[in-house]
């Protein structure tokens, strides 16, 4: 059986800045494909299933972080290692890239040998980990709207205690408010903010069941301004107070769930 030739996708709106990197990767028998904007990069990642992605952070339109959220939300691309490229050296930006699922962060201008070394390391780590489900049936291809919905839900869930504005949420997944609202109504049957409210209450129920946190702490965790606001919303939705709900779950646990 022929040895697998590694395949790297580079998504950067200024590919000429990475010409030396591209040439070195090809000399080292690594296949390279170039995409020059976020949409093209996302589509090629879906279609070509690269072994690794070099992703520029700052691009016009959707930035690299938005592309990463989309890739991590899709079953075909969620396990592909992503190495961010950026001219910004701010600690906050590097941390944001790693928190969004990137495995490494490389500063521009890049030293080609350093990029090659990091690419090799992460290709080896990915090979050792193996591709989950490689021998099973391939994942169904999600529509762009479904992927965007998954990415938005993941982003909201990660920021439930302080959810940004609708415009900011949309920007984080590479779209605009009107389209994101339409996607939620079509696929979830509710508005974005109705879903957020339901998710906050669902998470509140989990914390009431799984912890002994105070009502104020739970309210803070799930994004209510106060314990009083959380209690009111919970009672309206569940027909009982959070305290009564917690007591009822304790009783069920004591009696073995009967």
Automatic annotation (TrEMBL):
The modification 4-aspartylphosphate is found at residue 56. One of its GO terms (cellular component) is protein-DNA complex. Residues 150-248 form the HTH araC/xylS-type domain. The keyword Phosphoprotein applies. SUPFAM superfamilies: CheY-like, Homeodomain-like. Residues 7-123 form the Response regulatory domain. It holds the Pfam family Response_reg. Keywords: DNA-binding, Phosphoprotein, Transcription, Transcription regulation, Two-component regulatory system. GO terms for molecular function: DNA-binding transcription factor activity; phosphorelay response regulator activity; transcription cis-regulatory region binding. The keyword Transcription applies. PANTHER family: REGULATOR OF RPOS, TWO-COMPONENT RESPONSE REGULATOR ORR33. This is AraC family transcriptional regulator.
């Amino acid at each position: 059986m022929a040895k697998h030739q590694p395949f790297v996708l580079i998504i950067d709106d200024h590919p000429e800045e990475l010409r030396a990197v591209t040439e070195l990767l090809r000399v080292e028998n690594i296949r390279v494909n170039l995409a020059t904007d976020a949409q093209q990069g996302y589509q090629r990642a879906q279609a070509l299933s690269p072994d690794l992605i070099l992703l520029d952070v700052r691009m016009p339109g959707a930035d690299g972080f938005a592309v990463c959220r989309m890739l991590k939300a899709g079953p075909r691309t969620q396990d592909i290692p992503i190495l961010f490229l950026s001219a910004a050296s701010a600690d906050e930006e590097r941390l944001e890239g790693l928190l969004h699922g990137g495995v490494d962060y490389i500063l521009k201008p890049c030293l080609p040998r350093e990029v090659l070394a990091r690419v090799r390391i992460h290709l080896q780590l990915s090979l050792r980990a193996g591709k989950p489900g490689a021998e099973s049936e391939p994942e169904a291809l999600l529509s762009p709207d479904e992927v965007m919905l998954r990415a938005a839900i993941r982003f909201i869930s990660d920021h439930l205690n302080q959810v940004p504005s609708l415009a900011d949420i949309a920007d984080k997944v590479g779209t605009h408010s009107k389209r994101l609202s339409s996607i939620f109504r079509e696929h979830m049957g509710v508005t974005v903010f109705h879903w957020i409210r339901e998710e906050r209450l669902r998470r509140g129920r989990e914390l009431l069941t799984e912890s002994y946190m105070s009502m104020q702490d739970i309210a803070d965790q799930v994004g209510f301004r106060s314990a009083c606001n959380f209690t009111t919303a919970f009672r309206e939705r569940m027909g009982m107070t959070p305290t009564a709900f917690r007591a009822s779950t304790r009783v069920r646990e004591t009696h073995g769930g009967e």
